[in-house]
Amino acid sequence: MDKRKLSLIAISVSLLSGQSLAAGFQLNSQSATGIGRAFSGDAVIADNASVLSRNPAAMAMFDQKALSLGLTYADVDVTIKDVAYTTPFAAENLGGENDAADNKVIPNIYYIHPINDSFAVGVGAFSNFGTGTDISSLNNTGASMTPVDLLGQTEIVTSNFNASVSYRINQQFSIGAGVDLIYGEGKLKRQGEIVGEPVNSGQDTLVDVEADGWAIGGILGATYEINDKNRLGMSYRVSPTFKADGTVELNGAKFEEIHIPLPNIFQIAGYHELSPSWAVHYTAQHTSWGDFDHITVSGNYPDTTLKSYQWKNSWLFSVGGTYSINQNWTARAGYMHDKGVVDEISSLSIPDSDRNWYTAGASYHLNKNSSIDFGLAFVRGEDVEVREMSGIPGIGEVVGHTRSDAIYYSMQYSHMF
């Protein structure tokens, strides 16, 4: 395989991995209550079974069986504009795409079962990543040459199936551990005409990927209950190198597997009840995006590093409050600042930036054991200039501007029995 073809493969596969992993598309959607408070304190509040997604040790605070069923609708707004570059023939401007992302419906379910005063077990199913973009329309603008290796269609969905156990050491300390079974599937298409290359009906297919796979990770957690009004929690999620199998055709070369390293996630959280009506809570979370160093493929050719990154580790911080209006209604609100991860290497298909979350939510208590919970979040990114090198001969650097916003609508039913 010549070096030019290998370069095209490297760029194309990087689009698949980036689209599924970029912080701009990382889904914070595990519960309606969490969305309503910007996930502040979510590793220790333990007001319903969804705490299982953040900290298995918090199951020790349940003395009844708990079930939560939820659904989140993510209305994602990705804008790409002013995509331009200079060829040996002319300066080209491809324009942009105002609706580059697909919206998502994201379900979740959690169940916690106390065994005795010391042990509890739980299971959950939720998603950490999932999105889709399509900027292939920028290949059809009539330009003499287009960076077809950078523009196309991407679809990614992941599901996390968790089983956890907690152990109460004493009145203050509890610990927990869980296993994550992660399933992911994705489709990727990069197709267009390359000037000077043999074509079939005016189209070269550089990338045609349909792959899925399973990976195993885990989570460790701990809680410290200072008293019945104040508590702290922390957790550390260990993520695997994800392997996807399937049809992986890249510019005529066929591989069988793509290997993608996932970042680890550490978080600490606090909850403090100020009065019978008011409580405040907060979270600080560190994600080791620096571990996402390179993508490899294997199969019919020797294992090959396709793309190296210079991403940076990232922090997010959130703070929120909960107010008990009366015996039927509880209100909550929160704010989150989520740092972007892209550093020196950027991409049109990764519209990443710092993001601010403005959230609100409420619970209607049907009775003392059941509630319907609502959450709403407005996520606002920043306008970012992207500079990316195309592997198509004669194009070179492509410049564009991206922005990624979203609105999350979430509802769940929670029950203690």
UniProtKB/TrEMBL annotation:
Highest taxon of the lineage: Bacteria
Cited SUPFAM superfamilies: Porins (SSF56935)
Range of residues in the leader sequence: 1-22
Record keywords, A-Z: Cell outer membrane, Membrane, Signal, Transmembrane, Transmembrane beta strand
Compartment annotation: Cell outer membrane
One Pfam family in the UniProt entry: Toluene_X
Membrane topology summary: Multi-pass membrane protein
Gene3D superfamilies: Outer membrane protein transport protein (OMPP1/FadL/TodX)
Family classification: Belongs to the OmpP1/FadL family.
Protein name in UniProt: Porin
Species annotation: Agarivorans aestuarii
